[in-house]
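Hey forum,

I'm writing up a methods section and want to include a predicted complex as supplementary material. The small molecule is 2-acetamido-2-deoxy-beta-D-glucopyranose. I've pasted the protein sequence and the SMILES. Can someone with a working setup run it? I'll credit the forum in the acknowledgements.
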Amino acid sequence: MQCSWKAVILLALASIAIQYTAIRTFTAKPFQICPVPNPLNCGLGQDTDAFERICDEYPYFTYNISRKTHILILATTRSGSSFVGQLFNQHSDVFYLFEPLYHVQTTLIPRLSHSKSTADRRVMLGASRDLLRSLYGCDLYFLESYIKPQPVNHTTDKLFRRGASKALCSPPVCDAFGPSEVNIEEGDCVKKCAALNMTLATESCKERRHVAIKIVRVPEIGDLRALVEDPRLNLKIIQLVRDPRGILSSRIETFRDTYRLWRIWRATGRKPYNLDLSQLTVVCEDFLNSVSTGLSRPHWLKGKYMLVRYEDLARNPLEKTKEIYQFLGMTLDKNVVKWIQTNTRGSNELSAKHKYGTVRDSAANAESWRLKLSYDMVDYTQTVCPQILHQLGYKTVNSPEELKNMSLTLVQDRTFVPFL
Ligand SMILES: *[C@@H]1O[C@H](CO)[C@@H](O)[C@H](O)[C@H]1NC(C)=O
Ligand SMILES: *[C@@H]1O[C@H](CO)[C@@H](O)[C@H](O)[C@H]1NC(C)=O
Ligand SMILES: *[C@@H]1O[C@H](CO)[C@@H](O)[C@H](O)[C@H]1NC(C)=O
Ligand SMILES: *[C@@H]1O[C@H](CO)[C@@H](O)[C@H](O)[C@H]1NC(C)=O
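Reply by user p_vandermeer:
Happy to help. Structure tokens for the complex are below, copy them as they are.
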């Protein structure tokens, strides 16, 4: 991803970024598009003129945000990211946002949930990095450019999954709930709180010591390098991975339309000829790229990257959470502990209600895919994703009996030591 800003700009002019340019024009706030000058980023001397011409227009943050920890949860859909998000959302000194990139995607690439065009992908990534940079600086007005309809008087009721962010459901943003309430129902927040006042949301963000953002729309860690290297940020990435077989199973249950052909396969025992295989292989490729980068320990990730397997977290939530907080250099808040205690024991009857719910018996659920996928589908997944299964320590099965024998775990003990 060297000098990718240049590619982004070029492609932006050539492709769908006409919209992006429009947003940029109408945005009152300075637009942070350029990476920080860094000889490691771009070859020394090379391109500096162009760089300065672009960057001079966009001043750096003027206030001091270096004391904050900026936490990024890099995940994919149905990998347990709501669960991990809660480990930060519940912290009283963390401002948490649930997937703000949803708005970037729906604005720039409407209709396509997984655009395969490289140009679209580049534009989406460039815009995503800019938005993340702004959000970590508590500039929530920046997000307004992507919300439809555009907020009036800095107020909106269209923020995606607003109720998933505790900070946006409690004072000063909303007075309907007390600050110590552990389980605010997402729907209740949306019902009881007035439309979201972005000015108050900004205040809430600035009051808190740390900012955590969960994203599922950035494919791999290399795409975030410009942010990791940005000295204005103190970015730490928690990459969440999960057994691709578990992800597939969970997506089949959740995204019923998009994964319809997989359900047909499961029901009939025959693989449909027009099955979109990329719905599975993209997960494996993105994981493989990220994990290979992360575990090769490049200098730019030093102290900034931790790989977490969802299954480990599900098995030992409190212990794993402590490790994560230790890596971040943050103290674990009692609200987080309380949340873990109330939500990770057998409370299965609650989970069915919520598509994205985190309330569940986590350990039992992490491997329950084995009872839901057919052996054919599992075998097929093992054939197309062998490397990543091996690298992450997920055992393959060789017979339907092995698959269904739950007393035999498929998760190998494996320690991924954070790169400090
Ligand atoms: C920003 O915060 C850091 C860490 O507290 C401090 O060392 C530095 O002097 C501050 N810079 C400014 C301009 O206030
Ligand atoms: C926005 O604020 C202005 C000035 O306070 C007011 O006149 C206008 O009605 C507000 N618009 C909406 C949609 O609330
Ligand atoms: C949003 O909150 C700010 C700060 O309290 C206030 O000044 C502003 O009037 C509020 N906006 C609306 C539309 O209520
Ligand atoms: C299930 O696996 C356990 C542990 O390896 C083994 O002892 C047991 O015989 C297996 N059960 C069946 C029905 O295969």
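Some notes you might quote in the supplement: Residues 93 and 208 are 5 Å apart (CA to CA). The pocket of 2-acetamido-2-deoxy-beta-D-glucopyranose (ligand 4) is lined by residues 401, 405, 407-408 (CB under 6 Å).
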